[in-house]
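User: My notes are a mess, but here's the protein and zinc ion's SMILES. Can you give me a structure?
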Amino acid sequence: MDIKDLIPIPDLLEAKNVLVIFPHPDDAELTAGGTVALLTSKGAKVSYCSATDGSMGSFDPSMTREKIAAIRKEEQVRAAETLGVRDIHWLGFSDGFLPDIETVRRKMVAVIRLVKPDFIITLDPWLTYEAHPDHRKTAMAAVEAAMYAPFPLAYPDDIKEGQEPHSVDGIAFAVSSHPNTVIDITETWERKIAACLCHKSQFQEPVWKNVFGPILTAKSAEIGRKIGAAFGEDFKVMTTTHLHIFADAWQV
Ligand SMILES: [Zn+2]
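Assistant: No problem, the inputs look usable. Here's the predicted complex:
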């Protein structure tokens, strides 16, 4: 008997309150923007939580961390609005230099207890060949935060007004080597691209046109083909129950 037969996989598109936790400004749009737009167009509330301030995101030697962080914050707000997202929580860690996972997790638990999402979207912390430490740490901290948030005895002194211990129904890992869910994003594809292009400091016209645009289009079309859609985004959707002491959880 497989664990997937014992514990059902929740339906991401039925979520009413979703928290998207990502390492840097632009990651949410690139990896899950079509799904976010679909959720908000169905009436779901979607909130963002950015682990870092994006302050390493420039190849210009004359740029400062403060300046690029301010630019990227503005770009992220506009990108989020394009997808129907107005609630953004900034953890404020320095881009490229996230501290240890426990420190990050603690701040994420506080956001989960405030937002009280039924679903979390984040990156897959077990993605093979992911070299960026911010990506690995953010994803692992997010899944650990989802596990800890329901326990009143986890960080009890952090629980402020408006916050309470909270369980999520599901977690959707974007950019997973083992996806189990494909979302048809054909109707929100244009909005996803528009939101990605709000991140002007990261995707200047020639770079987008020659590199990111064609790659994103080809990969999204390939994912969409699995369900007969023009464009798709895929996720590994699980519950926190799947994510503890089950050896076959990877194949859920
Ligand atoms: Zn990133």
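The helical segments are 3-6, 27-41, 65-82, 101-115, 133-148, 189-197, 205-225.
User: Great, I'll file this with my notes.
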